Amino acid sequence: MKRDLWLQAGQTGWRVLAPFLLAVTVMAMAYLPSPEFILAMCGPAVALAYVYHQGVHQPALLPYPLAFLAGLLADFWAGGPVGANALLCFLLAALVVPQERFFRSVTFPTIWAIFALLCLGWLVAQWLYLSLYYWRPLAPWALIGQAVLAFLLFAPLSRLFAVFNAWVAGEPS
Amino acid sequence: MAAALGLMILSRVRPDMIETLRVHSHEVLSPVLEVAATPVRLARQGGDWIGSYFDVRARNQALRARLADQQALERTIVRLQIENDRLHELLNVTSWPVQVYGTVRVIGAGGGAYVRSVLVDAGTGRGLSSDLAAVDSAGVVGRVISAGRAVSRVLLLTDLNSRVPVRLARTDETAILTGDNSPLTKLMFLPVGSNATIGDVVVTSGHGGVFPPDLPVGVIVALDADGLRVKPYAQLDRLRFLSIVGLPRPTGQALGQDRAVAESDLERGQ
């Protein structure tokens, strides 16, 4: 009986950690050297897509500390000021996870459209924070590029997480 | 949420502490990057090999022409070097010593929306520390801003926070080269009435104690609303290997001697 409980806890832990580790690996690959830092621009997109996808499809498997940690790693690896992505990923999880019933009834295009709005919010929040941090109004183009990338990459990343989650759970994808 | 807000405040108030944490996270990341980079590197090498196979004839002709130019240039350089050495001897001038810390490989790009930096595969274990200069075969790339045991972060010339003391080779005017995350850097604080112009070569001035003097930085290519724009010689978007150089650091003994000399000078002055 006790052994079964441990086994179950281990399986749940693996189902929680495995997608996070996949997100970390994909995020790490975004920081490979690339011309004009194109790949690195995708770093925060992976963190956002991970948190949003898990929050929508597997809310029980997305503890808030992991959402925070995904954002924090994106902050650390990007090289800029730390904390903004961590806070935004945490808030994103706090916003999406309680809406489990709503997200169960909507189609993928709606989920994607909501993600587009969230990307817009992320863009504005990041721009405000970074402009305050550097104490000058920064040109928003780089952030707009990141937000558009995040929106475009969501579909393939979401598919990747879905297939991976199914594989971890031992279900057909 | 409190933790995130705390980190945001800390990254403003104590950036050094955040940088230390960042370097540790990069140390964790570097093995993942090494593994992830291998197929990319192999694919890139394969692509280069296939590309070079097909245009070998055209490249051969271009290289022959370039070799002839280089040989003429080499003769001039050797002549000038001899002349320069003789003049140095005559004037008893000592040249600036430059310490080379070695060649490092670029393993990652830490580039967010407003950051231009790269990760290299060497750190304190190979004698690197913050505030050393990074150069490639063409010119200055940036400076080391944090060093872990096996990984360091190099802030590129084009980063928003980059400031490099420079000098115009033609006029000897000093200025500060700043980045704004665009491919071209800006020249600031030129003397009033400066006659800097497009085509002027920019080199490091040696002020500030990070960059040894006279390292090639770039060339002035444009004048826009923000002032003169400098195109770095280094290909910052295609970095593979860097040399880390710096001014020799005074040892503890030498530092003590310098301090003793300064103190005795002060006493004499009084």
Tell me which protein chains meet in the greatest interface and how many residues each side has: A-B, 44 and 43 residues
**What is the helical fraction of chain A, as a range of percent?**
over 70%
- Low-confidence region ranges of chain B: none
pLDDT averaged over residues of chain A: 83
The secondary-structure element order of chain B is HHHEEEEEEEEEEEEH
Count every beta strand of chain B, where a strand is a DSSP E run of 2 or more residues: 12
Please give the count of helices of chain A: 7
Distance between the termini of chain A: 31 Å
Q: Structural class per helix/strand content of chain A? A: mainly alpha
The first-to-last residue Cα distance of chain B is 59 Å
Shape of chain B: globular
- Number of helical elements of chain B: 4
Multimeric status of the protein: heterodimer
Query: What summary fits the major beta sheet of chain A?
Result: none
Low-confidence stretches of chain A: none
**Strand arrangement, major sheet of chain B:** 1-2-5-4-3-12
- State the total count of DSSP E strands of chain A: 0
For the biggest sheet of chain B, the summary is: 6 strands, antiparallel, barrel
Tell me the fraction of residues in β-strands of chain B, as a range. Answer: 25-35%
Identify the overall geometry of chain A.
Answer: globular
Class by alpha and beta content of chain B: alpha+beta
